[in-house]
Structure formats: structure tokens, C-alpha cells
Give the backbone structure.
Amino acid sequence: MTDSMCSRRLSTIFSSALFLASSPLKKSVYLLGALLIIACQPSPPTSEPVTAENSETVNTPLLIRADSITMTPDHILSVKPTRYQPSLGLEGEIEPIKKINLTAGQALIVEKVLVKKNQWVEKGAPLFIVRRQTTEIQQPADAVAATNSAETVEINKKADIKPEQSAANNQNSADNTVINSDKQTKQAVKNDAEIDAESDAKMTAANSKKPTTDNVSSSGSNDGLNNTQENTQSEKSYNLITVRASFSGRIEKLYIKNEQKVEPHQPLLKLSDETELHFIATLPIDAESQISVGQTVNFTAEGLIDEFTGQVSKLTTTQQPKQLLVAVNVVDNEVSRNQIRPDMKVTGRVDYGQIQVGTTVPKRALHNVDLTVLHKPPYKPLRPLIANVWIIKQDQRLTRQPVEVIEYDPLTKQYLIAGITNDSLICLANLPVESEGKKAVVS
């Protein structure tokens, strides 16, 4: 109640009080005091005022016209700069860096298996002995070439992500590299068949110097038979291949047994070194300029509480589809050594660039986006998350601005976004698409 209203009401009350005092009833002076107190009491409030704190639960109506939209101050949010560090999300599965799958390049017979499943073997240790499935009798000179051909072994190296192999790696398909040359064979498996062949060749040469036609007798016939048996054994030894470990590791899979016949492309053995681990993440090709070898990656593993450290070791681009493969080596320390194991699913982040500036907004400011992926640790998206926000420019016109959602704060229930300049205002109302370009009127 204003002072003038109170004064007018007081004048009326005073007149009534004088009239009562002159009347025969002679009312008490206390009645006059009570009337004065009642007259000056303020009117009761009609409703609680709407503030920015409780505006999210109040649906304030909008007045939408052809060229303007009238709203209240509760629909307006100013931009408050918030600094943040840009980062990329990485996701993958832990696997050994050194890992090979041995498969048969042609039909073979397993002479002897020299290892057991889960056994640890050192580099150069013999794994198994095989020979070719053949019925042809070849001369010693041809046998060496046949042995070299029989050395063909198919190897899958997930540790080496080559550009021509990366697309297949990304699809989790077998990327088998056939090794034929001596140089490639030494890189994959070591073979002592050539040593055996050389020894047998010397034996054959020595036998060839012995006279075989001295006399036609039973002893002479026995000498000829012995030479034939020695040649047969020599030819058989040329076909034997001893496959050795190209690095120290554990026999993860063993598919063969003694005297087993193996068909071409059949798996033989899987060897892996679990002491050196990594994971491979896939990123959009646009991220190639934001990440480099040597960057630190902080990651968590499914089912574990601790945070672990990795380092970007290799970057590879694929053609179909166009993507970036990021290999991250697990830093070997006491924390990771005791907990990280192959086949674990991990999620990490790598920082890049300079500190950027964004702003925080409530959920109702963001449109056309699913925010549920942010509601669990680490509260950041693995991939860029794009939403739409209505903003008011300096000309008071409304426009729908795409922004990137950076992070969710579970304590304040606010979202950090990037893409809005400081000279704009944010409209919290969920406006129809036709509101683009209309004038915002605040009343």
C-alpha cells in the first residue's frame, strides 16, 4: 500500500472516529486505536515471485506473433565463460602387442608337437615339427627348394598395424600375411630345416663316393639297399620343418597334435606376449591433426576402479572407411601390471590443443540431442556430441545455433557447451523451428 492510499484511508477513518465520539453511544477511545492499526496494514501477497532458481519448474507462457516472441526474463540466460581443456575419447580392447597366429600354408603332417597350451617359451625355442604331405620322390637338390616352399607360414600380427592392413584389423578379420622369402621367414619364425638339409646333403655326397658295383653278390645287393634307405631318409629329412618362436611368449592356443594331418589355411598355434599390452581405438579422420605419437592417455578398465596410464604409439589411416586408428601402449607399472589383462574393455581420453572457453547451461537449453551418454563417468562423450541452442543476437533476433556438448556436471546438473560467443544471450524456451529470425521481446 502506498503512502497516499494510506493517507486517504486514514482521513476516512479519522472522520468516522469523530462521528462516533459525538454520538450518544460514546464508544471507547480504544476502538479508534484499533481502526487506525488495521487501516495501515499492508495487503497480503498474491503469489511467490518467479526467480531464475525455480524457473525450471514453472512453465511461463510465451506470446508468439508473426514477427516476434514475447517472453519473460526467466527465459533468458546470459553467457558465463568457463575454461576447459579439449580432449578426445578413446575406446578399445586390451591385447598383447606381440601376437601371432600360425596357420598352414599347404597340406602338412605334424611330426611332433614340442609345447603345451599355456606354456611360456623363450625366443627361438622349437614349437613343433611338420613335413609336407607328398608322394613324389625328389632329388636332394630339389628337396631344399621344396623345403623352402614348405616353410610358407601365415601369420597374423595385430601389433603391426600397416596402412594396407588396417581396414581388416578394424573389422576384426584375420589379416594373414603369407611369408615366402628367406628374409620374411626370419622375421616370423625360425626354421632349422635348412641346417638338416645341409647335413643330409653332406651325408648323401659321402655315400655317393662309395663303390656300388664291385661284385654281383648278396653283400653287394645289401649295400645297394642300404644306399636306397639312406637316400629315402635323407629325402624325408629335407621335408621336415621345425618351427621356432620368433619372440618370448605364452602358447595361448594349440590346435595340433602328433601325427595329425593339416589342411591348407588350418590354424596351428597362437603365441602372445602378455607382458606388453596395448589397445587400438578408432577416431574420425578429422582428429588426425589433434593427436600425435607420444601423447599421454588416461584410461579406465571395465570393472576396475583405478585409473591407468597409456601412451600413443602409432597412428594409421584407413581408406575404406576413412578413419584413424590409434594404438595406445599400456604403461607398465605396478598398478597396471597387477590388474590389466587381455580382452578387457577400456575407455580413455587424450588432451589436445590449448585451453578453450565455453559456457554452462541447464538441460532445457539443449535441443535435438540425447544426453544419456553423459550421465555416467567420465561424464564426457567419446565422440563429439552436437546439440541445438536458441540464442538472441545483438539485433534481438532469435537463431538456432549448433553447439558441442563437452561435459556434464552431476553435482550442479549443468552441461558445459562450446560454440556460443559472449555477445549473445541464451533462450531457455523450447521454441518451434519457425521461430528462426523472429524478434525476442522481454517483458
Remarks:
- Helices lie at 3-22, 29-39, 140-150, 166-170, 182-188, 193-208, 218-238, 334-339.
- Residues 1-58, 136-225 have pLDDT under 50 and may be disordered.
